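Subject: Sec-independent protein translocase protein TatC

B.,
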Amino acid sequence: MGQEDLILHLTEVRKRLIIVFVWFVVMLCAGLYVSSDILLYLKSQPMIGEIKWNVFSFTDGLMIYMKCAFLFALLFTVPVLLYQLWAFVRPGLTEAESRSALPYIPVAFALFIIGVAFSYWVVFPMMVRFMMRMNQTIGAVETYGIDRYFGFLFQIVFPMAIAFELPVILLFLTKIGLLTPERLKTSRKYAYIALTITGSCISPPDMVSHLSVTVPLLLLFEISALVSNWQWRAMRQSSPTNS
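Prediction pasted inline below.
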């Protein structure tokens, strides 16, 4: 019976992975279609002035085009992956647990998009302007390769996007009982240190830019802590021992 259950689980996993893979391929094809428009849109943004993208090898343009299509597909595959994961574990959950877990999917995706938008429209322009000022200060001739430009962009955008998943992570840890208000209060100072270091690593080394990145991260943590505490109290009130 155990072996039959294992086969059924593996079959279910295979079906879910096939769905995710097919969706990824579809989104990759869509990404290949829209990548040129996305890249031209990014290039036309006036937030950092006119920057000429130079290629230093024949494959630079092609590689950036493919990376853009891949990231487009990955971005829009994440919600499907999360939903398939939820659908896989749903039979082992109660009806209440199933309903409470489902909203995590759109919330996680929305927070990721918000993190990408904040890092691209706020943090990235500050970093670029600071680096350009430094280059001009030492009299360097500014010639930017497209590969290095997007490598620098991804280095800033994705850590911030992942940091914006903090509310979902804290809520999930609270939901499964690994995080309590007492533990959260004890770890607050370590979280502040980690977020301050993160903000300093992805922001220019001037006070205004550093604060404009670090303060939102700290506010995000405090909002996450408040929601986590609310979730914990709600769980305690609905537990059988308190009923």
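The mean pLDDT is 82.

T.
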